[in-house]
Amino acid sequence: MNAEIIAIGSELLTPFRQDTNSLYLTERLNLLGIEVIFKTIVGDNREHLTGAASLALSRAEIVIFMGGLGPTEDDLTREAVADALGLELRRDPEIVAGLERRFAARGWKNMSANNLKQADVIAGAVVLPNANGSAPGQWISGKYEGEEKIIMLLPGPPHELKALFDEECMDRLRAKLPPQFMATRVLKIAMMSESQCDARVAPIYKRYTDVQTTILAGAGEIQLHLKTRAGSLEAAQERVDRLAEEIEEELDDNVFSDNGDSLEQIVGYYLQMRNASLAVAESCTGGLLAERITSVSGSSRYFLGGAVVYSNQLKTAFADVPAELIEKHGAVSREVAAALAEGIRQRCGSTLGIGITGVAGPAGGTPEKPVGLVFIALASEKGTEVAERNFPGDRNRIRFFASQLALDLIRRKLM
Amino acid sequence: MNAEIIAIGSELLTPFRQDTNSLYLTERLNLLGIEVIFKTIVGDNREHLTGAASLALSRAEIVIFMGGLGPTEDDLTREAVADALGLELRRDPEIVAGLERRFAARGWKNMSANNLKQADVIAGAVVLPNANGSAPGQWISGKYEGEEKIIMLLPGPPHELKALFDEECMDRLRAKLPPQFMATRVLKIAMMSESQCDARVAPIYKRYTDVQTTILAGAGEIQLHLKTRAGSLEAAQERVDRLAEEIEEELDDNVFSDNGDSLEQIVGYYLQMRNASLAVAESCTGGLLAERITSVSGSSRYFLGGAVVYSNQLKTAFADVPAELIEKHGAVSREVAAALAEGIRQRCGSTLGIGITGVAGPAGGTPEKPVGLVFIALASEKGTEVAERNFPGDRNRIRFFASQLALDLIRRKLM
């Protein structure tokens, strides 16, 4: 089957915002073997929207509308799709009651009348509950000009759309499809360049002509996506697993995950497995490393906390870095990184301590200590190791690279 | 005038690649007062492409095709646009000669025949030289079904497209336009719901029928984009400024920025203006607040640092929160938030101190202290205030809301 995705919102026709939801939906649709043949981006304009809806219905089997389901005057998706289908909108009393409960639960009074728009349902549509927002989705399955169509109206905010699509639409779509089997596998690799990685793995994946291999490169991380289809799930899985195994053998411990887990999750698993705890003292990353580690639910089991020591005084106050050491070597130095890691480990009583200091830029660089220079230290009971790197890119990229290498150092230490 | 942008390439219909050229073109077109009313993404399929071209010609005054001009079998833009227009393709001997020179200059022999496709020109088109690649662009200006249309065929690689559009298309477009000028303004609002905000500002912006107002809502932040055109830049600017002023009067100090600055930047300006410094003690946000503050270059001038105090021991060790206080009220409490803020302020010697404690979830909630409950304290020499909130959403969203409210408390304190 094929699909058209329509992203709705005048903001998506400005230079400032871009539809990204469709990438997620495409991935999910591809998993089911559904191909996306058109994407259309249309503003909050009823005539344009109705026209785009009619056209999509005439050229695709599945049409997915994203956005324009909120309470404002601009939100016109329900009206336009109803127009295109020649169907009525009906106000659903259950949704109205739900909206009222939602408002009451937040202690808000006087729900404004425009909120009730969100209770309008196209005749014959199934209402798809939205656990994360006030506007529900809608699913319509029926004939349009004599042909079977599936139509979905989904909310625009990414966290609402993703949860609703996964929980309400995937099974409904699957039930409409002929049985077929797809297997996928994702390998994640830390701190390797794309060309280095590809040079080593291309000779392997090129032999697997039945498996689609896609390389995605980000800051300090490469992902290899493997995908294949076969007559049975076992046969498909066997093919991607065999290729994954060959690649893992070649790249060895550069592969940190083969099941989708993030580097922060993997570090969490290792820390728990070794019954170890972690504390961090961050200068140039400014809390990013702690933020990434604590983005994992349950991280309090192994992450004690740490210090963001932007000023030299705090390097001394929170991580016991001697003021003379900073004076002698400078705040951005191998010695201060080591002292940060050792100091925070002692202070917090953790198994491992991380210290990071560097020049994130754009200002503050010197010929000896240029923007991008970062020292990352890992202290344990056996001693302290310090990595020195010159990371490319802007402030955000340098900070991310530094946090990524810190996580990778911990992983390798515990492996 | 209005435009439709058509991005061509099957890779743009996968989960891994996205059209970004259109953001650049939109910015340039908006500068000329041209509005983008549709964007379409279509694969390398002649029938789909011809259909998309015919449709765009029927609904937009300017149609820009990007991509599909290369030498491979997949490159079908010239053929499809010629079909849609009912015009012939003619092989241009000058382009052929140029391709041959280009090949010879690189020392390549035997230019393969498919390269000659790039010399095919739609009857009546102006050839737009491409300084950065082998495929030239094309410009067509004429009637389609009785209406004046402008059609551009541009290469897909971003550096080729941008240079060619700026050098060859901007002046040609300007010559077709009545003199007009566009002015824009962006207002940013913190910690208000979209429906609350819209209910208050819709009566105002609806009176400005000549100004286009777009609402963008994110976690804890709303942006109002105002845009208008007029006969002179002054007249256009005056209209958006007057609307902005009315909205700012209505929303008062809920508006934190009217020039595009982020909340973390605004907080930085205020801290510098007041010659004040800041330190933070974060539990549930795990470093996110520090990370956001330090994402601004130059933040070391006002941000001293802080502590990520995930464990109770560290709340005592780094922010002097008495163990008995945690014992008595629990780590997630008004009292502990206040003690964190006061403790970190004392420890770091900063003007202001922030303390955050809460339940980010998904685990750890109880009936009395559910997931989403967050206490945020701001301590100054005049005392300590504590905000209590029940934030909706998942772990990431709750953490972001908490960091956003903390920044907004600081802003309001310093205003």
Explained architecture:
The structure is a homodimer of 415-residue chains. Chain A is of the alpha/beta class. Chain A folds into three domains: 2-174, MoaB/Mog-like domain (Molybdenum Cofactor Biosythetic Enzyme, Chain A, 3-Layer(aba) Sandwich), CATH 3.40.980; 181-257, Alpha-Beta Plaits (2-Layer Sandwich); 263-414, Maf protein (Alpha-Beta Complex), CATH 3.90.950.20. Chain A contains 13 helices and 17 strands. In chain A, helix 1 (21-31) packs parallel to helix 5, helix 2 packs across helix 3 (77-85) and helix 8 (263-273) runs parallel beside helix 13 (395-414). The longest helix of chain A has 20 residues, at 395-414. The first copy, chain A, is globular and about 80 Å long. The model of chain A has no long low-confidence stretch (mean pLDDT 93). Chains A and B meet through helix 1, strand 2, helix 2, strand 13 and helix 9 of A and helix 1, strand 2, helix 2, helix 6 and strand 10 of B.
CATH C-level class of the largest domain in chain A is Alpha Beta
**Tally of separate domains of chain A:** 3
* Low-pLDDT segments, ≥5 res of chain A: none
Distance N to C terminus of chain A: 45 Å
Strand order of the largest sheet of chain A: 2-1-3-8-7-6
**What does the overall shape of chain A look like?**
globular
User: Strand count, sense and closure of the main sheet of chain A?
Assistant: 6 strands, mixed
- What percentage of the residues of chain A does DSSP assign to strands (E)? 25-35%
Largest interface: A-B, 86 and 83 residues
**CATH-defined topology of the largest domain in chain A:** Molybdenum Cofactor Biosythetic Enzyme, Chain A
Rg over alpha carbons of chain A: 26 Å
CATH architecture of the largest domain in chain A: 3-Layer(aba) Sandwich
Give average pLDDT of chain A, whole number.
93
User: What multimeric state do the chains show?
Assistant: homodimer
